[in-house]
User: Fold these one by one.
Assistant:
Number 1:
Amino acid sequence: MKTKIYNLLFALIAIPAFSQVGINTANPTATLDVNGTLKVRDTQMIPALPGYTIMVVNDGTFQVAKVDPQIIIDAATTASGTNASVYAAKKTTGISLLSLGLFPSGFRAVNFLATERSIGNAALFSDTDNTYTIPSAGIYAIGFTFKYGTGLQASLLANSPGVGILRTRAGVATIIDNRPFSGANLILLSLTISETSLNSIYTFQTGDKINFGLTGSTALDVSLLGASVASFYIYKVSN
């Protein structure tokens, strides 16, 4: 008989261990539901975040949860206005000019690669068509520079070649800006300056693809392209 009574008492004592407990609430919705303020008078100071998680409170349900500190760092970085559109690249070797059927006549794109970026997210650039994809609509600043060979040629350049920026939108390719190499010709030495750049701002739509290349370039010496240098930068400045 005593054994049965002891078993009953132990069973009754164990019930609260598996139930929900409320403080200042008759209807707890968690293992421990506190309806009120909380004070912790002594906590350990840690020297660094690795190996720890941060406790946060849901403003709607008031439920406490753990969060990886990196999530908070990333959110703070985003809130501070980090420009995720920034991208820059430089090509000093292996330059070739690519021509696609949708390109306007005379335009050939420089074969930039994502691995040649100096800053920016590689996912913004495609090695398939050598394009930067506009991540969000707005106004962008662009700079593009091309030095053909040594930048000074011992002959006139036929077809007035220069640099150009190509935008492809909904399958339609359009040269949005271009500038020829300097028309200055040193007659006595027969030299032509063959280095130029574009620096301006442009309006784009999300998903626009941007190529950087040369215009009027069909007569350029392929051997000189190997000694050429090309670079560009692009970033969003405004919505």
Number 2:
Amino acid sequence: MSITRKDLEQGSLRNTLASLPIGASLLSEEALEASWRAALASLPEAGNDIWLFGYGSLIWNPMVQFAERRLATLHGYHRGFYLYSKINRGTQENPGLVLGLDRGGCCPGVAFRITAADIETELRMLWRREMLMGAYLPRWLSVRLAAADAVPNKNTQQHVKVPALAFVMDRDHASYAGRLSDTAVLSHLRVASGLYGPARDYLQHTLESLHKEGINDPNLARLWAQLQSEDS
């Protein structure tokens, strides 16, 4: 099933999920509205454009309207398969795993600049994509933007730090997987599939999009190599 921006804006995805057993776990419309408005109210510099940090599917399928995208690095967090997916990439009976930001290390990714005029529209849509289950904590975190003409994997003195919206793991959420072994991660990625398709496709698309940006993620590459070796 391919989810479009229109599906999110019109609430089609939410309506589909509401009819499933997991529907009782969805955040209410009121809670979603309150959450994104609280995030907007905590914006360090109100009235300006904002940056959104992407580390997984946002890189290859952002859906948001943005004016600019740049390579960016977030320090203090790293990406990993920390979130059980019982909808998008799995089911309640056979959960998959998707990426989440958790404490420690650093995470290279892509930052998207959303204009001040579009902020409310885009945040409302973004929350319908990322926060239906409330498994993430939206935070304004400092990211280091690469220069607009930066060459991937090359050192450059041209950079700037800006606050960016990032969705980090809520360790208290029931879907937080914690630190799993490669064996455990692969057991979920290997066979799980959900509304958005197989969990292994999520890993493949993310790894391919990182490569296109010139970003090397040895952990994801290792997992993908192990899945491929099983296919041969």
Number 3:
Amino acid sequence: MAEGKSSLVRVLPVVVFAVVAGFFAMALRSGDPSRLPSTLVGKSVPQTDFPALAGLESDGKPAPGFNSADLAKGKVSVVNYFASWCQPCVDEHPFLEALKEQSGVDLYGVNYKDQPDAARRFIGRFGNPYSAVGTDASGRAAIDWGVYGTPETFIVNGRGEVVYKHVGPISDDSLKTKLLPIIEKAKAGAGS
């Protein structure tokens, strides 16, 4: 009897580990990052101040940073977390340009844990779709916003409430089927 119990004690941890690893593997393969939960949806944006990206200019003047109050001025807006070292951010950048052009909303960029010169080169190379570019050098604001990683995009209604969070890079499909319709719905809600 002791020998049977001893074998069970040795095998049980291996079996438990295999089952848990299997669940993790299935979750990783079938996971759609845009389905990650966000506790911010339906709530006001966190009280944050995003200082301007040092040295970035727009129309010959220093480009502004922004704060949470700028997102509650009666107009739908989009906040996009990005970084120069983030390849998916490079991939999504043309879709940010399209989003701004097709939606007519202000885009606010948050440069995440990046060096100012690298961020300026990124914007210089790929274009600046942002009305303002703030920085989150320490990543503290990202914690408040519930950011999993870059890129992430938030649609904010005119009252400063998050109505949608998109995790991962924006694609042509997500632009057309998710972001633009949600922005239009938020605009319609702002008018009522």
